[in-house]
Each structure stands twice: as structure tokens, then as C-alpha cells.
Design brief:
The complex is a heterodimer of chains A (474) and B (110).
Chain A (H helix, E strand, L loop, with lengths): L3 E8 L3 H12 L4 E4 L15 H7 L6 E3 L5 E3 L21 H10 L7 H14 L11 H13 L3 E3 L4 E3 L5 E3 L6 H7 L3 E3 L2 E9 L2 E10 L5 E13 L2 H11 L8 E5 L2 E7 L12 E3 L6 E5 L4 H9 L6 H4 L5 E8 L4 E5 L8 E5 L2 H20 L4 E4 L16 H4 L7 E3 L2 E2 L25 E3 L14 H18 L1
Parallel strand pairs in A: 1-2, 1-11, 2-8, 4-20, 11-22
Antiparallel strand pairs in A: 3-4, 5-14, 6-7, 9-10, 10-11, 12-17, 12-21, 13-16, 13-19, 13-20, 15-16, 17-18
Helix pairs in contact in A: 1-6, 1-12, 4-12, 5-10
Chain B lengths: L2 H10 L5 H17 L2 H23 L8 H11 L5 H20 L2 H4 L1
The chains are: A alpha+beta (474), B mainly alpha (110).
Chain lengths: 474, 110
């Protein structure tokens, strides 16, 4: 493939990139999307399976933020990005956070009604539904436990469409917005990593790329572009800007939802092919309680975290499901592109208050699941007590420590915050990187802080809003 | 994968089914190759140091050559070490092995 030229280059094809590509292509712009990962048939692998992790996840799903403790994280690396691998949960940005961030970061057009209008548009473009009929057993347990305790809970809608038999299909970007972009004339180039951006004064004029061909051959190419949208996610967007020599407020302030898990054993079989869609919102926005993927491998992983023998429990794995408590963290992290390293270094500092909140979340999660009828709870804490009765849960308060907790996350945001407060932000209110006329970011990096809920709805709404602004500017 | 990492994977894999053991080892090898370089370098460095330590234990007769159970016991002991990097090493390797061993089992992959 020779060097390419385009009007708009979109780097990344996840929630931000796909919405950007579709909006601009349908507005008549010439759009080229480059995606570092491969194009994978969305039906080729079972959700959350090891085969899917190898095919669609970055680092086989085994990324980690350095800190005390290390925090494992997973992100997509394929056409469609993390929308191909997530649970599809859809939750609008909470109003009070939007209002708070609008003031703190001086974000234009971020009032609650304006954002609601963009969310309406997103929902008109995707199927956002609750499950038809009764929820699966793992999800019903959350509802049952919360109801018994008098705690608020809700079934979150998901970006799923359902057929007449109730079979759901996740509306990933490779099934929805990317086909729309292509139908409107956009071009998609998978297996193409952007090495760096080409700058000239206050403009970016293109990108240096390395494309891998199916046979294994590697080709270097340059894409010349008049406008550039970086949509690689909260880790890889700042890393690309840093590799290109753009550093001001780029990569610091990374936020995540640190998550602690628990394996719950029930006296009856539970489902394992999906993720529970109920969430307990009693402790929102600081603590969210929900369910995780619970294939055999994930159940084993959760059981193994205590360090105690788990063969007996594993023999009963079909009665076990995994759940989590996730927190809005006070801590923050950093993304750092280091010369000579292909992957950026990611760090995260958890505060003592975060740890205390995680302990509280784990205790509440245990209370809830015992109320729901669980007979045995295995926390993701090394040396953590396997609990069978409510009066045993108190021991977890002291056991959730930096040394013993096994933490992970799937939500990473805020590494290039947006707003007019230049001291705190790396891009303006619409994602334009400070100091550059034609370089924009349009993904999770822009979200100023951890939203306390799955961020994909916020990413899509903000991306739509930013595209509107771009098209208005001509 | 370094020789000691191969030993760690072998010791942490519970199954005696040889094809499954080979699949687990191949998965861990592929994941380590795909890891961020800085994490891979850290794990490789620890593997060299820990491998040397285990070699000393074997040479001094405190760990019998081929004693997979003894090695597994030693590795699991490191999981409660006060040294954070050592704990992280064991947890990372164990996570990969546990996930792969249960997801690659014949009854799961069909």
C-alpha cells in the first residue's frame, strides 16, 4: 500500500473512533480509520473466553498498572475496540458529575440538558435495551439480595438487540457504527499502528504508520491528513501524543475504577455465558456492586485468589458466579511513553481512602450475596477468609490491604482531560489538543474524572457532541 | 519463555494431562511475549534471580531435582512475601496458568 491522503484521519475504531468516523463520513467528509488491532468476526469466539482474549484483547487481557498494589486491566485491541469485549452495559453520565465537571474544568456546552440531547441521539442510533423476560440467575441474585436488604438496585440496559426468541446480540462498533461509516464512504485499515504524528508548526499534517499484513509482512506508510482525531483510548491516545512530542497535560490524571472481586457459591446452578445486568446503586457514586464474567476460567481465577486450596469448590463451579465491588477512586495514575518501548508505562496510586472504600464495598457485596442465598463467599484477597455466615464477614475489613488484595479494572479514563481550564486540561471543551489547530482527541481520555459507571455511553455522547462542533466550525 | 518460567508454569499446572499442560505452557509463553516490554523485563529479571535461588536449593539438597510439588509449595509461599514484586510475580504467573488450565480443558473447548 502506497502512502495515503485523506481529509480526516481517525486513529482507533472503538466507541469514540467509530462514532467519529460515522458522524464525519455521513456529513460528507473523506474519512480514513486506522486500527492497530485486527478485524475479527464478532461471532468467531465465545464472549470472555481465552480464545477471545488472545484474538481481541491487548496483551491477551493481562495489562497491569504499576503501583502498590499492581492493578490488572483489560482493553480491546481489534476493530471495534473495547466495545467488542465489554459487557455492553449502557449508563448515561450521572447528572451531578456532569454539573460538577462543567464548573471545575470550565467545559463549554456540558450542561445536563445538552448532554442528555446527545445521549438521546446515541440511543437512537444503537439498540439500548433491558433483557426481555426474567434476568439470568446470576443477575437475579443481585436483585434478590438488594431487595431483601432494602438497597437500591437497577437492571442496566445494554447495547443489545434481541430477536423474537429473546436471543441477544451485542451492538458492538463492528456491527453498528463502523458499517455505517463504511457505507458513507469511509475507509478502514486494520492491523495498522500509528507510530507518531507528523507536526508542522501548530498543525498536524499526517501520521507515520506500520501496517502488518495477514501473511506477516510489515509495511511502513505515511497517511497525510488535513484533520486528525486520536481515539485510541485512555492509555494509547496519550501515549501516541507523547511519542509525537506533545506532552502538556497529556497522560497525567489517569483515572480508573479499581475493582475487587468475590466468588459466590449458590446451592443451585447459575448461568456462565453472560454478565449480570443488575447493579446495586445503594452506595453510588462511590461504590458500585455488580457481576462479572463467570466462565470456568474466571471462576477458578477468583477462587485461587485466596491462596487456599480450591479443588473442592471448583468441582462445584457450575454453582459459582463472580461478582465485584468497584469504586470511584481518589487516586490517579499516569501514562508514559518511553523511547524504545512499544507499550507505554502505566502507573496508578491508590490512596488509603480507596483501600478503605474497597473493603467497604467487599463487605457490602458479601452481605448482599448472603442475603441472596449464597452459601460460600471467596474474596479476591490472599489469606482472605472464606465466609459462610454474616458474622464472619467482619474479618474482611482488616484483610483488604495493599499486600493482600487482588485488584483489576476495565474502565480507564481522564488521561487528556477536556475543558477551558488550561491548568487542568490537555484539550479544549471539544477535544482539540491545546496548541494544535487540527488535532483532536475523541475518546475516554477526555472524560475529566472516573464516572462511577461504565463509561461507554459517555464516550459516545461526548464524541457525537465534539463531531457536531467540528462540523459547525467547517 | 525462560527456563525457570517454564518450571514455574509446570509446577503451578495441576493437571497431569500432557496435551493440556503443553497448551497451558504455550498460552503463557504467548502472553509473556505479548506483554508490555517493561513488565516482561521485570518478570524476566525476577525469573533469573529466583531461578538462581532455586538452583542453589537444588545444589545444596534442599529441593530435590524434579520435585514439582516441592517447587509449587515454594512458589506459593512467595505469594505471601512482604516483597511486593515477588508477590506480583507469583500472582501474575498463577493467574495465567489458572485461567488457561481451566479454559483450555477439553470439556470447555469441546
Amino acid at each position: 500500500m502506497a502512502d495515503l491522503s485523506t481529509e480526516v484521519l481517525v486513529v482507533g475504531s472503538g466507541a469514540g473512533g467509530a462514532f467519529t468516523a460515522a458522524a464525519l463520513a455521513e456529513a460528507g467528509r473523506t474519512v480514513l480509520v486506522v486500527e492497530e488491532g485486527p478485524q475479527v468476526d464478532p461471532d468467531a469466539h465465545e464472549p470472555f473466553s481465552l480464545a477471545e482474549m488472545v484474538a481481541k484483547y491487548r496483551h491477551h487481557g493481562a495489562g497491569a498498572a504499576i503501583g502498590n498494589p499492581f492493578i490488572a486491566y483489560a482493553e480491546g485491541r481489534c476493530v471495534g475496540g473495547s466495545t467488542e469485549i465489554n459487557s455492553g452495559l449502557y449508563h448515561r453520565l450521572p447528572d451531578h458529575l456532569a454539573a460538577e465537571w462543567q464548573v471545575r474544568y470550565a467545559i463549554d456546552e456540558f450542561a445536563v440538558p445538552a448532554l442528555a440531547a446527545y445521549a438521546d441521539r446515541v440511543e437512537a442510533q444503537l439498540d439500548v435495551n433491558t433483557v426481555p423476560g426474567a434476568p439470568p440467575a446470576s443477575s437475579a441474585a443481585l436483585e434478590r439480595g438488594a431487595t431483601k436488604l432494602g438497597w437500591r438496585n437497577v437492571e442496566f440496559p445494554r447495547v443489545f438487540s434481541y430477536d423474537a426468541q429473546g436471543r441477544g446480540t451485542k451492538q458492538t462498533m463492528s456491527r453498528t457504527m463502523l458499517p455505517r461509516a463504511l457505507a458513507a464512504g469511509a475507509t478502514l485499515v486494520p492491523d495498522c499502528r500509528v507510530l507518531s504524528l507528523l507536526r508542522r508548526g501548530d498543525r498536524v499534517v499526517g501520521a507515520r504508520c506500520r501496517r502488518t499484513h495477514p501473511g506477516g509482512g510489515v509495511e511502513r506508510m505515511t497517511v497525510h491528513a488535513e484533520q486528525l482525531f486520536v481515539c485510541g483510548g485512555a492509555v494509547h491516545s496519550p501515549a501516541l501524543l507523547q511519542r509525537s512530542g506533545i506532552w502538556r497535560n497529556i497522560g497525567n490524571g489517569l483515572k480508573m475504577h479499581p475493582t475487587i472481586k468475590l466468588a459466590a457459591r449458590f446451592p443451585h446452578p447459575v448461568d456462565h455465558g453472560d454478565v449480570p445486568m443488575h447493579r446495586v446503586t445503594e452506595f453510588s457514586p462511590f461504590i458500585a456492586i455488580g457481576g462479572s464474567a463467570s466462565r470456568k476460567g474466571q471462576v477458578a481465577l477468583a477462587l485461587a485468589d485466596t491462596g487456599a486450596p480450591y479443588d473442592e469448590a471448583m468441582a462445584d463451579w457450575e454453582n459459582i458466579s463472580t461478582y465485584y465491588a468497584a469504586i470511584r477512586s481518589e487516586g490517579s495514575g499516569r501514562v508514559l511513553a518511553v523511547r524504545g518501548l512499544r507499550a507505554p508505562v502505566v502507573t496508578y496510586s491508590l490512596t488509603d481512602a480507596d483501600l478503605s472504600r474497597l473493603a467497604r464495598g467487599l463487605v457490602h457485596l458479601g452481605e448482599l450475596l448472603l442475603a441472596a442465598g449464597a452459601t460460600e463467599l471467596h474474596p479476591s484477597v490472599f489469606g482472605g477468609r472464606v465466609v459462610r455466615r454474616l458474622d464472619e464477614i467482619g474479618s474482611w475489613w482488616d484483610q483488604v490491604t495493599r499486600q493482600h488484595s487482588s485488584l483489576m479494572t476495565v474502565h480507564l479514563t481522564s488521561s487528556i482531560r477536556m475543558g477551558e481550564n488550561r491548568a487542568l486540561t490537555g484539550a479544549d471543551s471539544y477535544g482539540r489538543v491545546w496548541g494544535y489547530r487540527n488535532l483532536r482527541v475523541n475518546d475516554a481520555s477526555l472524560i475529566p474524572d472516573a464516572p462511577g459507571v461504565n463509561p461507554q455511553a459517555a464516550i459516545m455522547a461526548i464524541a457525537t457532541r465534539n463531531c457536531d462542533q467540528f462540523l459547525t466550525e467547517g | 519463555m525462560l527456563w525457570f518460567e517454564r518450571e514455574v508454569v509446570g509446577a503451578l499446572t495441576g493437571s497431569t494431562d500432557q496435551p493440556l499442560r503443553s497448551s497451558v505452557e504455550a498460552f503463557v509463553d504467548g502472553t509473556l511475549r505479548d506483554w508490555p516490554e517493561h513488565l516482561r523485563l521485570g518478570v524476566a529479571g525476577e525469573s533469573v534471580l529466583l531461578g538462581a535461588y532455586v538452583a542453589v536449593l537444588r545444589r545444596t539438597g534442599r529441593l530435590a531435582p524434579g520435585d514439582r510439588e516441592g517447587l509449587a509449595h515454594l512458589i506459593e509461599g512467595w505469594e505471601s512475601s512482604p516483597v511486593g514484586l515477588l508477590r506480583s510475580y507469583v500472582r501474575a504467573m498463577k493467574s495465567l496458568v489458572v485461567m488457561a488450565e481451566h479454559e483450555l480443558a477439553p470439556e470447555v473447548i469441546g
